[in-house]
Every structure is written in C-alpha cells, then in structure tokens.
Amino acid sequence: MKKQFSRTDRFSQQMQREIAMILQREIKDPRVLMPTVNDVEVSKDLGYAKVFVTFLQDDPEQVKTALGVLNEAAGYIRSLLGKRIKSRVTPELRFVHDVSLLEGIRMASLVREARERDEERAKNNPDDEQE
C-alpha cells in the first residue's frame, strides 16, 4: 500500500529543494560557509516555515553568525522562493541550526566506544564468552 503524503509534506520537500538552490547560487556572503538544508517544517496554513540548516563550520560563534545572516536575508530568500514556487502563499522563513547531524555523530561515537570496550573485555576474559 502506498503511503499518502499530505500537501504540507510535498510543499516542504519542494521548498527544501528550492531553498537549497537559492542558498547555493544567490547567497554570496562569506560568513555563510556552505549551508546545507536538511529539512523544512511548514505550518498547516503554509504561513510559516522553519528551515533546518547545517554549515561546514562547527564553531558555535560562526554558526550563530551564519544563522543571523540567513535570518536577516529571509525576506530576500522568501521573495526569490515566491518566484520559483507556484503557490498563492509563500511562507515566512525562519532558519534554525540542525543539531541532529552532530547528535548522530556523537551517538555513533558512543556506540563505537562501547563496542571497543566490549571487545577489549572479551579479549581479557575469554571465559565470559563461553557462558
């Protein structure tokens, strides 16, 4: 059975693609270093959109600065988006740093460390494996 996607899901996917292209081609500010649009959450009435982005830099100050630049340029980005998307309403944009990627890396690191400790324990106590 095919999964049905709501209008807001389709709209947010289209917005994600278009915003990524706009950031790549139109925003030339050196403080915004290689932004990646990970997700877009659109409100039910399509009036507001939360754009989750990550940047090449990991420094919290640089991320804060880049988010400030993007949020200041949100009106310009919205106007470009309105020309590209065939919709009556263009949502108001708010850019947010997406920490899920960093959290995923942290979790993978914790799992790797736990496995390494288990393997080390198994090498030091071969009797435990037989039980």
From TrEMBL:
<dbReference type="InterPro" id="IPR015946">
    <property type="entry name" value="KH_dom-like_a/b"/>
</dbReference>
<keyword id="KW-0690">Ribosome biogenesis</keyword>
<comment type="function">
    <text>One of several proteins that assist in the late maturation steps of the functional core of the 30S ribosomal subunit. Associates with free 30S ribosomal subunits (but not with 30S subunits that are part of 70S ribosomes or polysomes). Required for efficient processing of 16S rRNA. May interact with the 5'-terminal helix region of 16S rRNA.</text>
</comment>
<comment type="subunit">
    <text>Monomer. Binds 30S ribosomal subunits, but not 50S ribosomal subunits or 70S ribosomes.</text>
</comment>
<dbReference type="GO" id="GO:0030490">
    <property type="term" value="P:maturation of SSU-rRNA"/>
</dbReference>
<protein>
    <recommendedName>
        <fullName>Ribosome-binding factor A</fullName>
    </recommendedName>
</protein>
<dbReference type="InterPro" id="IPR000238">
    <property type="entry name" value="RbfA"/>
</dbReference>
<keyword id="KW-0963">Cytoplasm</keyword>
<comment type="similarity">
    <text>Belongs to the RbfA family.</text>
</comment>
<dbReference type="GO" id="GO:0005829">
    <property type="term" value="C:cytosol"/>
</dbReference>
<dbReference type="GO" id="GO:0043024">
    <property type="term" value="F:ribosomal small subunit binding"/>
</dbReference>
<dbReference type="Pfam" id="PF02033">
    <property type="entry name" value="RBFA"/>
</dbReference>
<dbReference type="InterPro" id="IPR023799">
    <property type="entry name" value="RbfA_dom_sf"/>
</dbReference>
